[in-house]
């Protein structure tokens, strides 16, 4: 068990963004879409999504990839988002002046975002193989090793199969 932790330490690179002014719920909506995807695919998704949370997440992923290429010498084309976390940060509290000398409290939520990238080129020649390392990366999709197809979580409502709401 100890060897696995040491090996992951040298194959994973992370970037941490703290005190980002948005609620954790809005940031998780974006993070759930990109978890387990490749670096290049993630950048395309984030550029096309219309949410305000995409820009700080885009900057964090770009920073984590720069850390991987500069500090560890990894190739950006073989990077995969292995872990993406959003935690709640401290709430900034302000007072807004109102009529008749009263004040109105304003609460600005913040969040901490952690992006972890893994180099999958190191896992292609291992005993477990590329597909086994990818199977544990994404919780919302699983890969069938015989047909190399990805199946997403679906649910049935009114006779129609719909995608999972995330």
CATH class: Alpha Beta
Number of domains: 1
Largest sheet: 3 strands, antiparallel
The CATH architecture can be named as Alpha-Beta Complex
CATH homologous superfamily assignment? Ribosomal protein L22/L17
- Beta fraction: 25-35%
Low-confidence stretches: 1-6, 127-131, 137-151
Description:
With 166 residues, this protein is of the alpha+beta class. The protein has one domain (11-138): Ribosomal protein L22/L17 (Ribosomal Protein L22, Chain A), CATH 3.90.470.10. 34% of the residues lie in helices and 34% in strands. It contains five helices and nine strands. The protein has helices spanning 2-11, 24-34, 39-48, 54-72, 129-135, and strands at 12-20, 79-88, 92-97, 103-108, 111-119, 141-144, 149-152, 154-157, 160-163. It has a three-stranded antiparallel β-sheet. Strand 8 and strand 9 form a beta hairpin. Helix 3 runs antiparallel to helix 4 (54-72). The two termini are 33 Å apart. Residues 1-6, 127-131 and 137-151 have low confidence and may be disordered.
Features:
single chain, 166 residues, alpha+beta, Ribosomal Protein L22, Chain A, three-stranded antiparallel β-sheet, two-stranded antiparallel ribbon, 5 helices, 9 strands, 34% helix, elongated, disordered N terminus, ribosomal protein, RNA-binding, plastid, ribonucleoprotein
Write a short abstract of this structure:
Helix content is 34%, strand content 34%. It is of the alpha+beta class.
Topology:
Blueprint: H1 2-11, E1 12-20, H2 24-34, H3 39-48, H4 54-72, E2 79-88, E3 92-97, E4 103-108, E5 111-119, H5 129-135, E6 141-144, E7 149-152, E8 154-157, E9 160-163
Antiparallel strand pairs: 1-5, 2-5, 3-4, 6-7, 8-9
């Amino acid at each position: 068990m100890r060897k696995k932790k040491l090996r992951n330490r040298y194959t994973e690179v992370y970037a941490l963004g703290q005190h980002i002014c948005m609620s954790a719920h809005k940031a998780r909506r974006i993070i759930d879409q990109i978890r387990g995807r490749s670096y290049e695919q993630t950048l395309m998704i984030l550029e096309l999504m219309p949410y305000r949370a995409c820009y700080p997440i885009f900057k964090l992923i770009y920073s984590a990839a720069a850390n991987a290429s500069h500090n560890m010498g990894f190739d950006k084309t073989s990077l995969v988002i292995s872990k993406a976390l959003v935690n709640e940060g401290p709430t900034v509290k302000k007072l807004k002046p109102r009529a008749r000398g009263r004040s109105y409290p304003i609460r600005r939520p913040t969040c901490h975002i952690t992006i972890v990238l893994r180099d999958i080129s190191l896992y292609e020649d291992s005993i477990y193989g590329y597909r086994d390392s990818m199977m544990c990366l994404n919780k919302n999709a699983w890969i069938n090793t015989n047909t190399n197809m990805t199946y997403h979580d679906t649910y049935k409502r009114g006779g129609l199969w719909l995608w999972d709401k995330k």
